[in-house]
Amino acid sequence: MADPIPPGTTETRGDTHIVRFAVGLDHPVQRVWLAVSTPGGLRGWLAVAEVLEAHLGGAVTLRWPNTDTVVSGTVTAWDVERIVEYTVDVHGRIRLHLEPGGAPDTTVLRFANEFRGTDDVRLDRLTGWHDHFTYLVDALEGKPADWSAWSRERWQELRDRYEARDFDAT
Predict the structure, then answer these.
(1) How many CB atoms lie within 10 A of CB 134?
(2) What tens digit of pLDDT does each residue of 51-75 get?
(3) 45, 135 in Cβ contact below 8 A?
(4) What is the mean pLDDT of residues 141-154?
(5) What is the rounded CA–CA span in Å between residue 24 and residue 151?
(6) Angle between the 152-164 and 119-140 helix axes, to the nearest 10 degrees?
(7) Which DSSP symbol is given to 43?
(8) Are 85 and 77 in contact (CB under 8 A)?
């Protein structure tokens, strides 16, 4: 089965990296917005929002259920049904920008994660976000992530592909 997520890209300046993805989703903006900006939506593909004050300057605390990672920070952009940005410790700036796709009831999610770290951290982030966007596609189809079934082996295979840049150009 083909991977529904196009490979991410990175831009690096010194030890600052920006990971980017553009993901086409066969769902309307309003539905994708709920998945990226509400505790119930985030739980299905990304993290448990232990705190999420849904407004600019609001507090956010996210706990990744497949690891012991907990991050806290601030909502640094909030434009309803368009842009949500969380700036959190460890993961840096996480920006999700939604726009209508070319066909009715489709959305393009433009994603950026800006953070500081080594090249290994950059590869880990590419892999992690790719993995999470696969979960997002499933969650939007009514199949939220079963975190107990998360596979380190699958993640490592995907990371190895990023390290080798072994993705089809099609």
Answers:
(1) 18
(2) 999 999 999 999 998 888 999 999 9
(3) yes
(4) 92
(5) 24
(6) 120
(7) H
(8) yes
Angle at CA 33, nearest 5°, toward 46 and 90?
35
* Number of residues assigned to the chain: 170
Question: Domains in the chain, ordered, with CATH?
Answer: 9-164 (3.30.530.20)
Task: Name residues whose C-beta falls within 8 Å of residue 101's C-beta, 6 or more positions apart in sequence.
Answer: 24, 25, 107, 108
Q: Residue 99: beta bridge partners?
A: 108
d(Cα 44, Cα 132) in Å, to the nearest integer?
10
Q: Rg of the Cα trace of the chain?
A: 15
Per-residue tokens: 67: 């690891």
Secondary structure (3-state) at 52: strand
CB-CB contact of 28 with 105 (8 Å):
yes
